[in-house]
Design goal:
This protein has 134 residues and is mostly beta strands. The chain has one domain. It is 10% helix and 50% strand. The chain is built from 3 helices and 9 strands, in the order E-E-E-H-E-E-E-H-E-H-E-E. Strand 8 and strand 9 form a beta hairpin. The two termini are 27 Å apart.
Length: 134
């Protein structure tokens, strides 16, 4: 978990971590500066190539791009969206696969807040997105 900055995570929420052969989708919490989640040993065996830690107001994201040999790290908050023009935000609820909703603490739906902007040519483009607990 060398690229994950624990102090930037929401204190409690959901994690989606993509490993080479597995997706970890689980509730987690931060206690005393330590990440507590059921399958923490996965992070000790292998570094995920993409992680999303989120609650209803904040998402912390780390994406490891092997082709470019770099890491994208982002913290996105609902407060940022408050200052955006509402017509550039599109929020949708997506269903979670039933195999994951059987896990205690995993909801049936997640919210994806798409953030748009206009390009130099006045074309509407997706700038970013934030995942949230419904």
């Amino acid at each position: 978990m060398q690229n994950i900055l624990i102090d930037r995570l929401p204190q409690k929420g959901l994690v989606m971590a993509y490993f080479k052969e597995k997706l970890l989708f689980s509730p987690y919490e931060v206690e005393g500066g330590e990440l507590k989640l059921p399958e923490k040993e996965l992070f000790e065996k292998e570094e995920p190539y993409e992680c999303h830690f989120f609650d209803d107001k904040k998402e912390y994201r780390v994406i490891k791009r092997s082709a470019r040999k770099d890491v994208i790290e982002r913290t996105l908050t609902s407060e940022e969206e408050e200052s955006m023009p509402p017509e550039l935000l599109f929020s949708e609820e997506v269903l979670v696969k039933p195999e994951y909703t059987e896990i205690p603490g995993i909801p049936e739906k997640l919210r994806v807040i798409n953030r748009y902007q206009y390009s130099e040519n006045d074309i509407l483009v997706l700038k970013d997105y934030r995942m949230a607990v419904v």
